[in-house]
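Fold this sequence, please.
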Amino acid sequence: KLVRISGDAIRFSLDLEAGASDLVINRTKDLLYFLNDGWIYRLGITETSLPAVPFLARSYTSLAIDPLTNHLVVADPRNLTVAGEVLSFDAQAQEISRFQAGVFPRHFWFE
């Protein structure tokens, strides 16, 4: 369940059938990104329903927002037996970059 809280009151809640994970917010704090059944969804903080189409309709295992570029960074484990990839996307879902990572990339660290 995704819940918007203001003060001590629940203003909005959204049930997510598949369960959500890896909730992140962009640098301007107006867009949420999260994994739902492996696909990435984007939700504006004032929206009240889940978009009909995922932001990125491909299965990823984790995501983050790069604090310098505000790009969405995602991990693609590929087939779990070879090196995975880390990809970054802009706000229009255009791929900006990709690089090879270790087997099953999962977490990100930004300096």
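The mean pLDDT is 89. Strands lie at 2-6, 9-14, 20-25, 31-36, 39-44, 62-65, 72-76, 83-89, 95-103.
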